[in-house]
Amino acid sequence: MEDIEDRCRVALVQAAPVMFNKKKSAEKAVSLIRKAAEQKPDLIVFPELFVPGYPYGMTFGYTVGHRSEEGRKDWKMYADNSIIVPGPETDALGAAAKEANAYLSIGISERDPISGTLYNSNLIFTPDGKIDALHRKLKPTGAERLVWGDADRHYFPVTQSPYGPIGNLICWESYMPLARTALYQKGVAIYISCNTNDNPEWQNTIRHIALEGRCYFINADMIFTRDMYPAASLHDPAPAEISALPDIVCRGGSCIVDPFGHYVTQPVWDKEEIIFADLDMQKVPAAKMEFDPVGHYARNDVLELIVHDK
Description:
Radius of gyration: 19 Å
Strand content: 25-35%
Structural class: alpha/beta
Helix content: 10-25%
Number of strands: 15
CATH topology: Nitrilase/N-carbamoyl-D-aminoacid amidohydrolase
CATH class: Alpha Beta
Largest sheet: 7 strands, mixed
Distance between the termini: 24 Å
Number of helices: 7
CATH architecture: 4-Layer Sandwich
CATH superfamily: Carbon-nitrogen hydrolase
Shape: globular
């Protein structure tokens, strides 16, 4: 492992997007980046699908072997509000990252400019405002497959930073042991998980991964409420599906865990908040003394991971 800076100041943004509106979601993100920048962070992290939001609870009129034309209208609206990379939204986000002089990680719904397929993606910008890493979720979870496709490229990118490699897996990708190992093999020091996962069990998962990977785990969780959906402009069956949701659809739980599996910041629930923390990056190499999953504690003569990265 190369020498790294001693401290990394993180701003972890737990906030709700402007649901299904890419322009306003990007504008809100820029506003929050500027607010976070007042504390001079080195890294700013947003949740999964912050642009344009996560369509929790919606079916878009899909049933096995059947689609409804009304549901198709809502899917088309969501597709129209998914963003092309690069595009005006990423230009605005990159400019905000440059203004803040910080690395920026943010989840988006990406629309392929050629095929039109949607991907659940995450972007990492460098402090000069350039997109350094685009990661597409390998396997959308459950009914997410009705909206987003499997990643066809950009499997395990990492961003080289003064604080060590920064990598990302999206939500339940972190339940894939080999995907985690692919990041460990790249020396990830800051492991970002943008997600929409407020399950109590998830907190056990993130502490395990930090301890397993000997890295900092940034748990960037979404928060949004039922009344944030633009229900009046949606078609059947969406209004009934949304009305059946709880008042707080996703409670958040954003937090940071150190390489020994301990909370640096406790989970934040049921509110928007920018969480600040100064990470002691020297804990990353120090934690490898007794365990390194791809180094001295690995048995590469017995176990081998082959990654078809592209």
